[in-house]
Write a structure and sequence with these properties.
2 domains
Length: 80
């Protein structure tokens, strides 16, 4: 559209639109890169075994966080 003479009066709007589209494209590329680096591979790879492994890992992390909260006051008390 920039090259066509009919849209000379819209040149700044077209430029703004191109900049916005490029920014969105960079953001989408960043999101896809982040998704590719996650341990969850998506619905087609999610079966009973992988779902159980994911839930077990989530449970393990929650348990470790709870242990840290439990031991923190005791460690502080022993440090004083």
């Amino acid at each position: 559209m920039e090259r066509l003479g009919n849209f000379e009066d819209l040149k700044s709007e077209i430029s703004n639109l191109k900049s916005s589209a490029e920014a969105v494209s960079r953001q989408i590329r960043g999101w896809t890169a982040a998704l590719q680096n996650t341990p969850i591979r998506g619905q087609r790879h999610l079966n009973e075994r992988t779902r159980a492994e994911f839930e077990q890992e989530k449970s393990r992390k929650a348990f470790q966080a709870a242990l840290k909260q439990y031991y923190r006051p005791q460690e502080e008390r022993l440090a004083t």
